[in-house]
Amino acid sequence: MTNPTRREFLGSAAAAAAVMGISGRAAAAATPRPTDVGIEDVLMRYDDYHYRTPIKFGGTVVDRATILNVTCIVRTRDGRTVQGFGSMPMGNVWSFPSKKLSYDDTLSAMKALATRIRDLTAGHREPGHPIDINHDLDPDYLKAAKATAAEWNLTEPIPPLCTLVVASPFDAAIHDAFGKAHGRSCYQTYGPEFMANDLSAYLGPEFRGEYVAKYVTEQPKGRMPMYHLVGAVDPIVASDVVKPIGDGLPETLPEWINFNGLTNLKIKLNGEDLNWDVDRVIRVDRATAETQAKRGVSEWVYSLDFNEKCPDVNYVLEFIARLKAKAPEAFKRIQYIEQPTARNLAAAKPHALDEASKILPVVADESLTDVESLLLARDRGYTGAALKACKGQSHALLLAAAAQKHGMFLCVQDLTCPGASLIHSAGLSAHIPAVRAIEANARQYMPEANRRWEDRFPGLFRVKDGTMDTSCLNRPGLGAVEL
């Protein structure tokens, strides 16, 4: 597939913006569908967990999580009521990073926003497809974020990314209810039989006549490799363990490799210390190579995540040069580099990451909040996109379509998603053709949140051969999400 020019990409973004209008609302539906559902009520509750061991990203150490759980009741046009369920970690440190506001400040703001989003969602009565319902509510959610920031006298606005995270379990619950109402996997409800609008209503005229169904599969992949996270403060070998946890789970990288049969490792890096970053990858590779040799395994891969801390592309290029010189075999195992520089794409120059993306796929994550940001990321030199359930099922599907249309590298990543949120994330991975693996690190940091799901979906939550059994993700709704 030929990659569009910068002008063509920006033209696509402008066309999409014109279709959606200033408010971002979808174009009017051509013809309502008898399969449409309307929202009857929305319920929500929270679960709180402490991590068994801290995780560090973006320069911040996190040791806890708050999970937002949402139940949405919808009514079909023939009068039936059906419940759907969505769940997602709030992820405030990742989605609402701040040097002025505390952890509790940002979490409290997100909870206040969640209440507003609940009220807005429950008040939406126009029947439709979940993607249209979400697209119609999106601008109201953003307005609610501004109102929440004003009401709480926040010194910073609530970022759009944060708003997506808060809204995501509501969107998931609607998709889940819709699929269950029709006795189908959600991934079998994204064609013209169920959708009044084609993709041009959301992504611009070049998508006219195309539906989400073109870019997802109705049936999930049978098995997928699982990415294990090597956090920036995680011990690699036994000598790194200062205070053993002693809960029976692995505490070093070799132990985890043997425990789960790992072949895919995601390595968190600093982005502000070249020597540390290069040494970290070399140490991970050395421990992995020794362990895999004992297991008789010769093939494994890495991804590298700088969490937007690199000052510029020169840092990335120097990192690559040093790693290739010191550990060429480790370098060969890298599948992609994730979000090396700051998430603010408007502040970056065109083609800023081009030199790095000629060497390896460079994937945008924190930068992506809508299709316009996807196209702008491509203009800045990103060649890949990280899809996340925590940005919403509807948003993830639209970004997946746009990214595939433009020939971009795709991956799906989680937000230390446990339980139902991991099942949701795994469903995205299993139904988007280009995605190669699944991230699943709640089992490392928040295993308690997975406990009640393990017996129900053992192939997803008990990994022994480095892969997850995704064949079960074909049940009504979001694959396997159940109350």
3D architecture notes:
This protein is an alpha/beta fold. The chain folds into 2 domains: 11-205, Enolase-like, N-terminal domain (Enolase-like, domain 1, 2-Layer Sandwich); 215-469, TIM Barrel, CATH 3.20.20.120. 39% of the residues lie in helices and 18% in strands. It contains 17 helices and 12 strands. The strands form 2 sheets. Strands 4, 5, 6, 7, 8, 9, 10, 11 and 12 form a 9-stranded mixed beta sheet that branches. β4 (223-230), α7 and β5 form a beta-alpha-beta unit. It starts with 5 loop residues before the first helix and ends in a 14-residue tail after the last strand. 53% of the residues are buried. Mean pLDDT is 93; it is low at 1-29.
Name the average pLDDT: 93
- Helix fraction, binned, reads 25-40%
Show unreliable segments. Answer: 1-29
The CATH architecture designation of the largest domain is Alpha-Beta Barrel
Q: How large a portion of the residues is in β-strands, by DSSP E?
A: 15-25%
What order do the SSEs take from the amino end to the carboxyl end, as H and E?
A: HEEEHHHHHEHEHEHHEHEHEHEHEHHHE
Number of helices: 17
In CATH, the topology of the largest domain is named: TIM Barrel
Global geometry: globular
Key terms for this structure?
single chain, 483 residues, alpha/beta, Enolase-like, domain 1, TIM Barrel, 2 domains, 9-stranded mixed beta sheet, 3-stranded antiparallel beta sheet, 18% strand, globular, disordered N terminus
